[in-house]
Amino acid sequence: MAQTEKKGGLLRKSSASKKPLKEKVVLMYDEIFTTEDPSKCNPRFWEELFLMKVNLEYLEGKLEALDGEELMKIKDNINCLFQHCIQALGEEHPIRVVNALQTLCALIRGVHQKNKSTSGFDIINMLVGFDKAELCMKNLMESLDSLLCAEGSESLKSLCLKLLLCLVTVTDNISQNTILEYVMINSIFEAILQILSSPLSRREHGYDAVVLLALLVNYRKYESVNPYIVKLSIVDDEPTLNGMGLVIAQALSEYNRQYKDKEEEHQSGFFSAITNMVGSMFIADADEKISVQTNEAILLALYEAVHLNRNFITVLAQSHPEMGLMTAPTSPVPTTPVTPLGTTPPSSDVISSAELPLDADVQTSNLLITFLKYSSIVMQDTKDEHRLHSGKLCLIILTCIAEDQYANAFLHDDNMNFRVNLHRMPMRHRKKAADKNLPCRPLVCAVLDLMVEFIVTHMMKEFPMDLYVRCIQIVHKLLCYQKKCRVRLHYTWRELWSALINLLKFLMSNETVLLAKHNIFILALMVVNLFNMFITYGDTFLPTPSSYDELYYEIIRMHQNFDNLYSMVLRLSTNAGQWKEPASKVTHALVNIRAIINHFNPKIESYAAVNHISQLSEDQVLEVVRSNYDTLTLKLQDGLDQYERYSEQHKEAAFFKELVRSISINVRKNLAFNTLSQELLLKEFSTIS
Question: Which GO cellular component terms are attached (predicted)?
Answer without folding.
Answer: cytosol; membrane
